[in-house]
Amino acid sequence: MKKLLAFTAIAAAVAGVHAQDFPGSKTITMVVPFAAGGPTDRVARDLAEALRKPLGGATIVVDNVPGAGSSIGAAKVARAAPDGYTLLLNHIGMSTIPTLVRNVPFKVETDFEYLGIVNDVPMTLISRPTMAANNYKELSAWIAANKGKINLGNAGVGSASHLCGLLFQSATKTEMTPVPYKGTAPAITDLMGGQIDLLCDQTTNTSPQIEAKKVKAFAVTTSKRLTTPLLKDLPTLQEAGLKDFQVTIWHGLYAPKGTPPAIAKKLNEALKTALKDPEFIRKQEGLGAVVASDGRIEPEGHKKFVQAEIAKWSPIIKAAGVYAD
Fold first, then answer.
1. Which is the CATH superfamily of the domain at 18-121+249-320?
2. What strands, in cross-sheet order, belong to the sheet with 60-64?
3. Model-level pTM greater than 0.85?
C-alpha cells in the first residue's frame, strides 16, 4: 500500500512538472470535424490564434476531419494520446452524435475531458422572397394552410439547419418535406430562387441575404431578441408562441479522456483568457456569434450543458428517424 501511494505521489509530481512545461515547442492539433471554410472552421482558426499567447506562443494547427455528423473527427480525438496535444473543437453536433450516429466508437459523456464552451451562434427562420407572408403570424397561417406541401431545406443530415428544422417541425406539429443539400450555400441559392420554401440557419450564413433582401426573415431562435441593427426587429420564436423554442449553435473545446488534470486545467485557463481577447471577440461578433462568459466556460458547466442538450435533442431525432451515417 505504501509503495502504491509513493508511486501515485511520484506520478502526480511528474505530471505537474510536465504541465509546467506544456506545451513547450510541440505543436498542438485542433481537430475540426467539418470541412475547411465553414463556420466551425472559422471559429476554430480564430480560437487557435487567440490561444497562442496564453499558451506561451504555441503552434496550433487546425486539422479538418469531416463526416458522419462530426463523429469521425471526434473519434480521432477520442483515440488520441491524452497528453493535451490533440484537441477537438465541435459544435452542437457533440450533443446529437449519440442519437444521430449509429455504432459510435466512443461515448460523448465519458471519453473526453470538457474544457469549456466557446460561443453561441443565433439562427434565423427565413423563406423564399416570393413568400406571401410578411411576418411570423402570417407565416404561421400559411404553414397551417399548406400542410403536406412545404419544402424545408437544410445543409445536410446533422447540420445546424437540419437540427433547427427538426425542432421547428416538432414545435409547430407540422411535417414538412426535408430537402437536404451538400452545404448551406446551395440551400440558400435554391431558397432565393424559390425552389424551396423555408430554411432555418445560422446568422453567419443568412445575414448577407437578409440584408440584400434576397430572402424574407421571420424570427430568431434565441430566447431574447438580438441587438444587431439588421436583426433587432425580428421576434423570437418564443414570442411568436413556440414555448421554450431555443436553438443556438454553440462550440466547445475538448481533450481526450485521461489528459492529466494539470494540463487540462492549463488548457481551460488558456481558453478563458482567449475568450476575453478583444480581437477574438471582434472576429466572433463579425460572424454573428456571442462569446461565452457564463458558467459553461468551466469544465463542469460545459459538461452539464452538453448533457442537457443530449436530453433535448435525443427524442426529437428519434421521432424523425434520421441518421447521419
1. Bordetella uptake gene, domain 1 (3.40.190.150)
2. 60-64, 28-32, 86-90, 249-256, 112-121, 290-291
3. no
